[in-house]
Every structure is written in C-alpha cells, then in structure tokens.
Design goal:
Blueprint: H1 15-20, H2 29-49, H3 54-71
Helix pairs in contact: 2-3
C-alpha cells in the first residue's frame, strides 16, 4: 500500500534496516496513536471555531497548529 509519502518499509527487512527507512516511524503504533490524537484535537478545535469570532478562530488555529507539530515531533 502506497501512502502520501511513499510506500512503507518492506516487511522482509531486519529490524535494524527497517529503522533506517524514512517511513519507518509512521508505521509504529505510538505514531499512529499520536496521529489519532492530533486528528481528534483538530476536530474539537474546528467545532469550537464555528460559533467563534474571527480573532478567536485565528488564535485557535495557530494554537492547534503549534500543538500538532509538538505532538508529532520525532523526538521521543
């Protein structure tokens, strides 16, 4: 299965080689949980933006973007 960033690492590679593959991080359970958290956070943020005035929408969007980058950062 090919994703937006290309195919995941081949299954036949040993673990050490799979860890060197650029897409390896996106196949881990931990990263998938982080991605789900970010998705849910954007949904809640979007729902809060619907009745809010424009300046609140801008603040919420910037805050959610910053938090998304912080959560999905590659550092452990």
């Amino acid at each position: 299965m090919s994703g937006f960033f290309g195919p995941p690492p081949p299954e036949h590679l040993p673990d050490k080689e799979r860890e060197k593959h650029p897409s390896w991080r996106r196949t881990t359970r931990r990263y998938k949980k982080k991605k789900q958290l970010v998705r849910d956070m954007w949904i809640v943020s979007g729902l809060l933006m619907i009745p809010a005035p424009f300046y609140i929408v801008v603040v919420l969007a910037l805050t959610t973007t910053l938090l998304s980058f912080a959560i999905l950062d590659e550092t452990p």
